[in-house]
User: Which sequence fits this backbone?
């Protein structure tokens, strides 16, 4: 019955010794890996504030959403009967600047490139039929939205006066 004989009888290592050697090798590999990982993490130089600020500047969002406070209310304006035959009062330089500022911050994205069919600022041919409809129609389009243009240019926190000043600025630049 030779096939039932102990096959390890002639070898120097028993099964227990092989298991012990295997455990020692695995533990050694794990310890070496942990040591290398610790050394690599210790060599990382902490970033200074300027570097952190530069990274935050590069990864900041392109836009922000501004939501008006719930307590914000529009100023109450006394209604008056429309007067016909009189020209609208001239815009002050502050109203003109407010319109230009709003245009540059919100409207220029579409109205400087003609995106989504928006007429470009200063394009007299594109603006002429719109201006011919009257300023009130242009105000209504800007306040309520038209075609691809959202109401108030997509910024609901703008006051009606700011939107109208922006329309006046665009019309003046496109006549």
Assistant:
């Amino acid at each position: 019955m030779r096939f039932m004989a102990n096959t390890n009888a002639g070898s120097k290592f028993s099964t227990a010794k092989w298991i012990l050697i295997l455990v020692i090798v695995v533990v050694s590999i794990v310890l070496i890996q942990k040591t290398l990982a610790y050394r690599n993490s210790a060599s990382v130089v902490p970033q200074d504030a300027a570097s952190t600020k530069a990274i935050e500047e590069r990864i900041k969002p392109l836009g922000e959403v501004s939501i008006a406070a719930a307590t914000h209310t529009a100023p109450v304006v006394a209604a008056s009967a429309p007067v016909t035959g009189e020209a609208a009062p001239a815009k002050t330089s502050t109203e003109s600047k407010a319109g230009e500022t709003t245009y540059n911050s919100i409207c220029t994205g579409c109205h400087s490139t003609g995106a989504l069919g928006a007429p470009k600022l200063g394009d007299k041919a594109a603006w002429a039929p719109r201006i011919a409809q009257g300023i009130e129609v242009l105000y209504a389009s800007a306040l309520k939205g038209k075609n691809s243009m959202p109401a108030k240019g997509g910024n609901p926190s703008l006051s009606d006066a700011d939107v109208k000043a922006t329309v006046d600025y665009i019309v003046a630049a496109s006549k």
